[in-house]
Amino acid sequence: MKTLIDIDGYQVNIRGSTGALTVGKPGSGKSVLVSYLMLKLMSVGAFPLIADTKRSDFYSLRKVLKLPDIQDVTKQKSQISATPNQVAKMLRILTKFMNQRYENHQEHWGWDWVDYNLRPIVVVFDEFSATLSEADKPTANEIISYLKQIIFKARQMGGIYLLLASQRLTADVLERNISSEFSTRIGMQNLDRISLNLAFPGCDLNEIPIVENIPGHGLIYDDHFDTMIPQPFIAPDMSEVDVPKVVKHLNQKFQHNDFLHEDYWPW
Ligand SMILES: Nc1ncnc2c1ncn2[C@@H]1O[C@H](COP(=O)(O)OP(=O)(O)O)[C@@H](O)[C@H]1O
Ligand SMILES: [Mg+2]
After folding, report:
1. I need a labelling partner for 206 at 20 to 30 A (CA). Which of 31, 68, 196, 259 fits?
2. What is the pLDDT of residue 71?
3. How far is the CA of 60 from the centre of ligand 1 (A)?
4. CATH number for region 4-63+75-253
5. How far apart are CA 96 and CA 147, in angstroms?
6. Cα distance between residue 61 and residue 251, in whole Å
7. Is the CB–ligand 1 distance for residue 28 below 6 Å?
8. Do the strands 231-234 and 47-51 form a parallel or antiparallel pair, or are they unpaired?
9. Residue of 80, 92, 172 lying closest to 126 (CA atoms)
10. For 164-196, how does the pLDDT look when each residue is reduced to its tens digit (9 = 90+)?
């Protein structure tokens, strides 16, 4: 299975990785970049789950992400969540599923989800800070608690890749120990110092390159780079891509797939 994704010449490996964190002010190009990464993951067979409580770009994909009719109604779970409650529920199902993957695949020491041929899952979480501020306290806590479990545990057997986008990063939104778990961290356009510190911990702020304030321009860091300093990059221009159409096509293409059959698959 091909697990490398190209971002402007930088190779990002989804294997052994938690996901990509993208930060940037409104209009800086977060959603465009996340849609590019989502399509790349879907093109290798990843099953998409989407949290978009602002009901913007990703929410509109609900029309093309209709699940096939399944007899078992308990399996009819939506791939798109549009309220904090739905997000919490989706993450609860995902966490349970991740734990089942661990329980069911212990026979080979050191194997990961690629070795077991498990279907990867891409979780798109657009406007994360907005979802948290919209949620009541218990729901926000629930969301963070599931997210932490997924972030700390999914790497080996979860096969779960998180694409988390947020306007700002503060310690309230994402504690430093969580943000630094993301193998790939991206800042679109120029960021305030607090966000920079959280997105690129361990990096001297004076060494961080200045990027042009043009949508799609940003800084990228990956654990596999041989430098702690994030590098300037330009995200792919997606204006000519009909994202819903490609999502629909890829979704249908992989409805029948060669990944290992999992009885406990919840969707
Ligand atoms: N990589 C890019 N190349 C060209 N234009 C871009 C790119 N990324 C964003 N844009 C432009 O900027 C607009 C805002 O991007 P968007 O991803 O919606 O920002 P955000 O999600 O950060 O608010 C897009 O509608 C598009 O016109
Ligand atoms: Mg956006």
Report:
1. 31
2. 52
3. 17
4. 3.40.50.300
5. 12
6. 11
7. yes
8. unpaired
9. 80
10. 999 988 877 787 778 889 999 999 999 998 889
